[in-house]
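Lecture notes, structural biology module. Today: joint structure prediction for complexes of two components.
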Amino acid sequence: MRELDIASFEFARRRRGLVIVCVLLVATAGLTIAVFPSFGESDIDFAELLESYPEEFQAAFVGSVTDFSSLEGYLVVELYQLVWLLIVGSYFAYAAGSLVAGEVDRQSVELVLVRPVSRTRFVVGKFLAMLPAVAVVDLALLAAVVVGAGLIDEEIHLTRLLAVHAVGGLYLVACVAVGLLASAFFGRVRRAQGAAIGVVFGTFLLDSLTVDTDYEFLGALSLTRYLDPGELLVAGDVDWGGIAVLVAVTCVLVVLAAEVFERRDLS
Amino acid sequence: MSVPAIDIDGLTKFYGDVRGVEELSISVSEGELFGFLGPNGAGKSTTIRLLLGLLKPTDGTASILGFPVDDRAAFLDVLSRVGHIPGDPRFYDDVTGRKTLDYFAGLSGDARRDELLDRFPVPLDRPVRAYSRGNRQKLAIVQAFMHDPRVVVMDEPTSGLDPLVQQEFYEFLREERARGGTVFLSTHILGEVREVCDRVAIIRNGRLVAVEDIDDLLARSGKVVTVQSPDSIDLADFDFPETIDARIEPDGSLRLVTSGNYDALVDALDGYRIDDLEVRETAIEDVFMHFYDEGDGGEDGVDVGDSAATDDGGDAEDPSPADAEESANA
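The predicted structure, tokenised, for the full assembly:
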């Protein structure tokens, strides 16, 4: 299985970056959770405050949450909508942007693809390398939230939390696939990463800004349209259709990336 | 030896309107040490990338051990018997030499790794980032040969190697030939061709100029006559049918490459006072100057400095031949 050789080599090279991301994410989660008790005790009515923001802002950062007094609702707004969907999603698209383009740019690809490794296997191997990376980040945040909730003596719905992280993981994998396609298409790392982060960030904004307008259908282009941390964590509703779309989009993007890379000149 | 080790047939690559290579046809037998000579930007790297399937030809085809590069599945199979040293080998900076080789071993094997490392030692446990150019090149040699390939394609393999290692490498290549291995190496260093190659293809501006047996080439290439005179020398006096090349050097001396007719030469020299006269065998450099001097435009600018510097076995110079070629191909 040469894909696995490629995947494990690539993953090993990304370990250090991964540790940094985990540390930052866990620190963010820790701070967010640490603030929650004082947040609940304050007199400010956050529901009212948030309602005073423009709808687009709410769509982007609040989601479908209506209850901010529970830790779940608070976390959706403060952590999952913004940090998870937008920042971590963009990070994985960006990181995946260098998977293939990095080797083409650096020309190390000339040492790999002159071995009995097809370009498709190469692309698939690179994709596989990011799966454990997503899993590590996903589990790190999950652990941070569970431990953090325990430390402030708050109950958190564990099954729903797991559901958020399961679906969120699929979302991040789809972001990786976006980066992978950009990476297979562009010969330069910067361009591939720029395109990848642009697509994830841009469609996120598109999804938020077109809510309740005539152009709402445009938001369907965004991956964020297919998962709703609020629904999952606060209401416990699993959107199976959305999950199917995320998985399907990922598969299509990986196949496209392999196909694009098969047809490209490498120089 | 029915199937050639390498068969390039009408290979053409255009980047838009820019010619990479055009109508290239070369056949290399198994067990041959084949040189592929041309100045930077002539299309050597493009040819090698086409041959290995990294680029798609605009026209024509290439095959290795009988497997055409455009038959993806079959060609992948043959790649397990192929080794490659790229023009400017780039590894993974943060990874040690050992782990780099482990990785490549997983993809295509490493039966000869230890033997090669004994011969071309590198600091295995340091990250490649810390490697000198020479060590990187040695690592490239090890990875290209460690799976005991039958055909090795190399793009300027000695650039960055110090002269001693270079000689060791030439010796190694001759041993590989003795074992039946086929080597295809591109170079812009003439001395290298003379040192190791049986035959050479000469390329300029993306076109094949000649494919020659090295010995034949040297045998029929005449002599070099150098004349120093206090008089001003008129080139027209030396324009015999046998003259291959005649030029006035910057110091005012005459440099003539001729395939014979020394009577005419002596007669012509009669009109001049002579300070110094030298007649010597042609060095391979003189022969190749001949190919590059005539024909379309001098845009590829053969590096005369190179031929002088490599006359004595060759200092590697021009640390970045790939860059020059890169910009020509862009």
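Point to remember: Chain A has a mean pLDDT of 89.
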